[in-house]
Amino acid sequence: MPFDSALDPTSEYTSLGFALLTQLLVRPLMSYRHVEGPAGADVVPDLAAAMPEVSDDGTTYSFRIRDGVRFGPPLDRPVTSADVAFAFERAADPEIGSPYRFYFTSAIEGMQAVSDGDASSITGIETPDAETIVFHLTQPTGDFLDRLTLPATAPIPREIAGCFDRSRGYGPNLVATGPFTIEGSDDLDPTSCDSLTPAPGFDPSKHLSLVRNPDYDPATDDPGIRDPGFDRYRFSIEEDPTKTLTRLEKGRVDLSTGDVGIDTLRRYVSDPKLRKRLHVEQDDRLWYLAMNL
What we know:
The protein is an alpha+beta fold and 293 residues long.
């Protein structure tokens, strides 16, 4: 399976899910530009209107939300600072068990208490008005802006996501802020938790269909961060990657992503016609570092 939490941004922790969320579906406060080299690691505003105001001691970050960013169907309403704060509340919720929470429980005041079940709200997050969110950190955290690029930090509407726990994931009912939305989202009924049904464009075991978000305004975005490119995306989800490769070689699909066996890789490398179709993605990634102390 390509997803481990059906594209619920609070819990989805696969690289493919991360990319689909942050590039097509949701907008965190911060992001990165799509350029090669060191400049591609520079953190830039996304949902945030500008770089934050940071206190002299490095423990308070104040952001303004960008004007004109809206939730797509079925809500069709402006994004507020409260929606960003709820994303952190949901990530801290012990019943959700978000894999992202360890990035923030030791960094944001009061988030550990919520994660431990000892508090119901995060004391280190303030929303003085609908456009402002302030984070109070336990200590200076040099990579805090990088952590704010994670999909779990993107705004989440309480009135819909609050209906779902980890067992009944929010992903199939995800309300987009990015350029795309799940097909069929505009037909969902958000009047109550009982009225919500999964968008027909997404079956986590079979397919994902994304269409343009009618509430997305390109003027609020930076093409250096995300370029929508197409009008729709259709992903087929296969347990067996060899089936997708067969369809790719017959021209029935445009792209196959994921791990392949050594025999398949050897065939693509040795065949000039197939070699030009092979793209090996280079990652700067550290899975773990073992230290004998």
